[in-house]
Amino acid sequence: MRYYPFGLRQLVSFAEIARLSSYRMAAESLRIAQPALTRQIQNLEESLGVQLFDRSMRRAVLTPAGKTLRQLLPQMFRQLDEIQSAAKRGGAPARIRIGDAGSVTSTILSPALRILRSEYPGISIDLVQNTSQGYLDAVLSGELSCTFPFLPAENRDLVSYRLNDQEIGVVLPADHLLAKKKTVALSCLSDERWVLFPRAANPLLYDEIIHCCHRAGFSPHVIEETTPRQSAVAFVSCGIGITTITESLRYLVTEGTVYRRLIRPTPRISSYLVARRSETRPEVRRLVHLCRQVAKTAEAARAGT
Question: For the chain, what is the domain count?
């Protein structure tokens, strides 16, 4: 077994200085005296035999060796988190339960999970369906690790991250006169029978749809409220009425129905990632970070097109 002449505390201190580019701010963040922090870094440099910070600069500027170490540390910290988590689980593989209705599965969740599985090869992943409010309740109770609802959490024990904005489209029977059009004006749906979802399932989205209908000059004639969205699409296929659905869920459209985009301005809704604020499991925290990273990259790509 090899002995390493430096400790984890020194590496954590280095990472914090590198993140903040300041000894003073890092000392405040770590709640230690700045002279003690300086000695930690000096001891770390002596142990490694390299200089990590450029002493000629007023700010904490990394040397090439310091930059290399900063790049390597995040993976090491994740491995240490996994060691701690695995020890608490008694060696059992990590397990994540995710509330996902399909709104961000292909664009955000799938790419993030591919990376996560490469870092946690034995991890078990369960995908659970519910309403947006049901997802939030399940995360709060601990039944779910995290979720992707269409509304932010109001409970202070939960933290919400907005991932993207999505337009709402309409699902029509395939033989509907408007099915021949590529896009449909909301005002053209004033005489239709609507199949929505209970307002309690997602008050934000429900109110947005009703508000847009009012702005188009009518109040929708809601004849049925049902969840999940597959049930609403099934009602449409039976010719009972029409329904709305986010563009990301258009894959739910079945035989006998068609999805049509609405002419702008259209109802819009944001999708969120919600987890417990006190979450400590490294695999869950890593998934949250990866999803936010993938969403940010996708948003930048869309803005550039």
Answer: 3
